[in-house]
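Customer ticket, subject: "Can you confirm the structure for Cysteine hydrolase family protein?"

Message body: Hello, I'm evaluating your service for our small team and ran a test protein. I'd like someone to confirm that this is what the system normally returns, since I don't have a reference to compare against.
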Amino acid sequence: MIAPVFPSPIALIIIDMQQGMRRMPAESRNNPQAEETILRLLCAWRAAGQPVVHVRHMSRTPGSPFWPGQDGVEFQPELQPLPGEHVQEKNVPDVFIHSQLERWLRMRGIQQLVITGVSTNNSVEACVRTAGNLGFDTLVVADGCYAYAKADFDGVLRSAQQVHAMALANLQGEYAQVINSEAALALLLKSSVAL
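Agent reply: Thanks for trying us out. I re-ran your input and got the following:
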């Protein structure tokens, strides 16, 4: 008798949604609905019993809002991890560096990652590049990430949307597929039906 083949789990990875992010100037960011989008995805992943990874940045720079021991390192209340959900701390933008995240995913047979969080051009981009290079099937939720306005190398100020769009362009096709939250929910539903 042949054993049935079940699809592998799909992990939702939520990057750096901490209290310290709320101290950044709201007028200089894009996707003001990102937190609501991430919460909707989180609730759906929980309802489906799929794995969730909460990434928390712990800065090595004194005075940073993410310096250990300050309330800035705490998760935003509505996105607080539940018991049993994996929390992965990091000290650099890329969560795969100096951590056991890759091992944790591989041991659970997780090949597909859906990534959300902040900021698109920093921690999200760094994590997605490594995930793609490690061979994970990586999806980035465009409306579940956001960025801040930033001057480019030539000193030209770029809007948050421009920074966000360029970071996603850097990732699309090379390291990941960029999708929206509706596509992520459809993928989750399809996976749940297959189970």
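A couple of notes from the result: Residues 1-6 have pLDDT under 50 and may be disordered. The radius of gyration is 17 Å. Feel free to reply with more questions.
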